[in-house]
Amino acid sequence: MQGTRGRLPLFKTSNIDSMDFVERVSSAFVTVSALGALLNIYTGLGGFLSVIGFLVSVPWLLSVPPTPATLRKRLLLLGSAALSQGMLLGPLVGTALQLHPGTLVTALAGTSLVFLCFSGAALLSKRRSYLYLGGLLSSVVSLLMLMRFATWFLGGRALLFEAELYVGLAVFCGYLLVDTQARCWAQGSMVVERAEADPARADHVRAALDLFIDFAALFTRILIILLRNAEQRAQREREQQQRGGKRHRRY
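The structure assignment produced for this chain is given below.
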């Protein structure tokens, strides 16, 4: 028993069932978020309304205790948050569909690959070392917020945008490790074992919310990077065509 105290019970049936439930719920609400993006694109709904919807749904969900009696209510609140998040992403997704549709598929595939790789690394880790990244990641996020505040007075918003884009991508990859492993460990004991003793303490809806937010943040940043690269390539091609046309007219 002592030799396995610091190890994650990967093949324990209850652990597999719990993670399967979380993954299925997260996947379902990624689909709901995609529907929200399409709703924004085709109807124009969203904007400030979606911001309010997200800011109301998430705190409300977190305030409801995780019991079997409240599961339906919490899933509806998670669905509302996912729909609002999708509506917020609607303008970005619409821009991608209009200018470079291929980047949307690439971003979705890339985000899914990153999600699977980092989640798998956290689950296969025999130690809970990734949990200690949480403090470092929170410090980086706080630093980015402080830098944003400083740009209001000192300028340099373009540089900050680059930092938020690439550093933010790395930060949310780290949060994916932390959130995945946090579902399996808590305060030196295994969450799965605690859940068996008291099922109400296994908050799978909160786990799905954390992973959904990580997925949405990663997808947003990857899509922006791909769009910028595609636009830069298109701009270079246009410039080459213009130079080629000028040479043609000379001859």
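Interim note for the steering committee: Residues 204-250 form the longest helix (47 residues). The CA atoms of residues 120 and 180 lie 9 Å apart.
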